[in-house]
Amino acid sequence: GFFTVQTGDGPVVSRVRGSLLQERLDTDPVAVGDRVTVTVLADGTGVIEETAERERVLSRNAASPGGREGETIDREQVILANPDQAVFVFACADPAPNQRTLDRFLVIAEHAELPALIVANKIDLVKLWSAKAFFGLYQKLGYPVLYTSALKGTGVEKLREQLGGKISALAGPSGTGKSRLLNAMQPELDLRVGEISEATTKGRHTTVATKLIPLDGGGYVADTPGIRVVSAYDVEPDELDAYFVDIAPYVPHCQFNDCAHTNEPRCAVLAAVEKGDVDPGRYDSFLRLRDEIEDLYIT
Q1: Could you read off the pLDDT of 199-213 as tens digits, one per residue?
Q2: Dihedral of alpha carbons 109, 114, 118, 121, sign
Q3: In angstroms, rounded to a whole number, what is the distance separating the alpha carbons of residues 271 and 268?
Q4: What global pTM score does this model have?
Q5: β-strand 220-223 against 211-214: which pairing, if any?
Q6: Containing H/E element for 243?
C-alpha cells in the first residue's frame, strides 16, 4: 500500500488512501506509472488521494491467490500504467525461449495498442542463425527484434536508443536477463541478478516489485518481476483472433462471422495454416489461449 511518488520537489513515500482502495476492486487502484494527486503531510510522507485516468495500460489477469500455478481470476493486475512501449525480453538459451509465452505477451501488447519490441538476450550462448530460427518469425510478422548479450555488451547501445525518451515496460519470464541488461546500460543501478535453477531450468525472481527507473538519456524503464503465468485481461474468446497479427487478415474471409477457426468449413485461417501462410506454432498458441479464455468466461 506504499508507493514512492515523484513530485516537483522530489520523491515522497506515500500511502494510498483507504477509500481509494475500495473504489476499483476489479483492478489495481494505484499502479506504477500512474499519475496521482498526493497530499504531503507535516512529517514529509504523503497520501495518494486520487489517480488520473490511464491513457493505456499493460496488464494481465491476476493470478489466483493461493491457487495452483497457472490459475487466474477475472481481475486486472497492472504491470505498468501509461507506458509508451512494451519491451519483451526472452533468452536465446538458458532458459530456452517459449513460443506460447511470447505469443501471450504480444497479445497483451496488441490489446493495449502498445508498440512491442522483442529483445532476444543471451545471444552469446547460441549461434546467430539458431536464434533467428526462433525469433525470425516475429521479424517477418513486423515486430522489431533486437539481439543482445548483457555479458558481452552486444546490442546494449541499440537498446539504450530504443528506450531513450520513452516510458517502457521491460517484461518477460524470469531468468532472461532483464536486470542484467539494465546494469549493462547503467552500471550504477547495480540491480540484483539471479541464476537459472538447475532443477527446473526456470529463472528465479530477482525483481520483486515493479519500479520506474530514470534513464541517463531521458525516459523511464519499468523493471518488472519475472512473469511465469501470462493471461490476457478483458479479452473475450471471439475477439482473440484480432490480436494475432498474422491470423487477423484471414478472419474476414471465413464463411461464418463467428468462426472459431477449429474445424469449421471454409475457414480461411485453417486454410492459411495448411498452406503455411500462418505458422503452426502461432496457431497452436491461439487455440490454447482461446481455450483458457473460454474456461475463464464459463467459470
Answers
A1: 334 444 444 577 899
A2: negative
A3: 5
A4: 0.86
A5: antiparallel
A6: none
Tell me the average pLDDT across 33-62: 93
Locate 202 and state its grid cell. Answer: 526456470
Distance of CA 51 to the CA centre of its chain: 22
How many angstroms separate the CA atoms of 266 and 259, rounded?
10
- Residue 269: phi and psi, rounded to 5, are -70, -45
Give the closest residue to 178 by CA, choosing from 215, 202, 158, 205. 205
Once rounded to an integer, what is the mean pLDDT over residues 95-114? 94
Could you give the 3-state DSSP secondary structure of residue 246? coil
DSSP 167-236: EEEEE--TTS-HHHHHHHH-GGG------B-TTTS-BPP---S-EEEE-TTSSEEEE----S----SS--
CB atoms within 10 A of CB 63: 19
Of 125, 120, 148, 115, the C-alpha closest to 136 is: 120
With b meaning 16 or more CB within 10 Å and e meaning fewer, what string describes 274-286? eeeebbeebbebb
Q: Write the pLDDT tens digit of every residue in 125-154.
A: 999 999 999 999 999 999 999 999 999 999
